[in-house]
Fold this protein.
Amino acid sequence: MGRKVPSLAGLVRAQGEGWRAFIGSAEHGESWAAPGVSVGIGGEASERVNLVVVHGSGSVDDGIAGAAAVLRRRGLPGSVYAASPLAAEAGRAAAARGFTASAQLALMCVHAGDVVRSEDGHPTVRVAGLEGVLAAGEILADAFDLPADWCQRLLGVGFPSRTDAAAFIALHDGRPVAVAGSAQVGDVAGIHVVGARLAHRRRGAGTAAVSAAVEHHLRAGARWFAVFSPPATEPFFAGLGFVVVDHASTWVLRPA
């Protein structure tokens, strides 16, 4: 990229704290932070939305233990993410609380000056009001084969009024077809969710939604963009200029 990236700890912390902001209005959500750990529980029945993000030494064991206790009490699955330098410490703490090792995720990053913008012509709008939340939830439900009300609760009716998180919808013939959600911590903006209706995948709508989020955060002073990506979506983000800077280890806790 020709530029020195932020510290790995800083990027991962921004992702963890950004997720806390993104689910800050979730109907069944709760979150907290401890030294080296960010916990953001979206409150729905998927390990992908109930996250413990380890970004530094300090309270790793206590943070994972506290999150595990809440997840078990609520009967929810959850995940621990940890950057490679902290994988051993986080792995021991996670295993002690019943989490099992899962797939790695790429931590991808791009400087503001290197982001590839969408030029495909899909108009975009920021999620606003209850109508926007409902539309975004319906897109995510179609994209990930989930109940629409589940996705709508994850955002929550208060989401449009948040100043620390946002979501953008791409339209096709006036119909909402893709959504990208993001949050900014300092000068790092994290992309936390991207989904497109099945009929509109590979048609540029997802790229347009992410580009709208990027433009929003550029105006808010973001200099870097980051995302945790499974292997299947790495090519999508690489096409937007993101490069892999680390592979995060993950562990999953499932209800008994």
